[in-house]
Amino acid sequence: MHDPFPIAPPPQLVKATTPLAEFLRLSTLPIHIHELLLAALSYHIICAYVSPFLSRRLFPSVYPSLPLRSRVNWDVHVVSLVQSVVVCAAAIWVMIVDEERKSMGWEERIWGYTGADGMIQAFAAGYFLWDLQICLRYLGIFGPGLLMHAVAALIVFSLGF
Question: Which of 6, 38, 40, 160 is the most buried (most CB within 10 A)?
Fold first, then answer.
């Protein structure tokens, strides 16, 4: 299945990321980098704007009275919930509709590639890129353990490119 994402990768972005992708042997990263970056931006928008806006309205006596540390943690958990629902729903959709994937054996499903799988991987890697910047920004709240988790998860989710 071709990548079902409705926006094609910008040629300038593909060109800019290709040398790094070739050096790291991440051959499909350039064709999914726009999805990764858009996912990270979307998660940032959810954390910085959507979660606080909705949380103040849905929980007017709770959310605004929380200390900064708790509000940051709350907003991060909202993003985590959204990300897990989006990625799981997309993965289930791909499992149902991707005929190319259906024709693969178990080894190809582990080691193979389809454009739709790359899109889902980009959404997941975008989350961990966002998570990395959150852990750096709020190192005093999340600590070095979660920072190392964000680094490791970003590496692991990027290896499939």
Answer: 40
Residue 7 one-letter amino acid: I
**Residue 6 to residue 45: CA distance in whole angstroms:** 20
Q: How far apart are the first and last CA of the chain?
A: 16
Q: What is the pLDDT of residue 112?
A: 84
Q: Which tokens go with 148?
A: 């190392």
Helix axes 29-45, 115-137, angle to 10 degrees: 50
b/e map of 108-138 (b: 16 or more CB within 10 Å)? eeeeebbbbbbbbbbbbbbbbbbbbebbeeb
Q: Which residues of 69-87 are buried (b: 16+ CB within 10 A; e: fewer)?
A: eebbebbbebbeebbeebb
What are the 10-residue block averages of pLDDT along the chain, 161 residues in total?
Answer: 90 97 96 97 98 98 96 98 96 91 87 90 97 97 96 94 92
d(CA 109, CA 113): 8
Quickly count helices (H) and strands (E) in the chain. Answer: 8, 0
How far, in Å, are 5, 57, 125, 144, 158 from residue 119 at the CA level? Answer: 7, 33, 10, 30, 12
Provide the whole-model pTM: 0.92
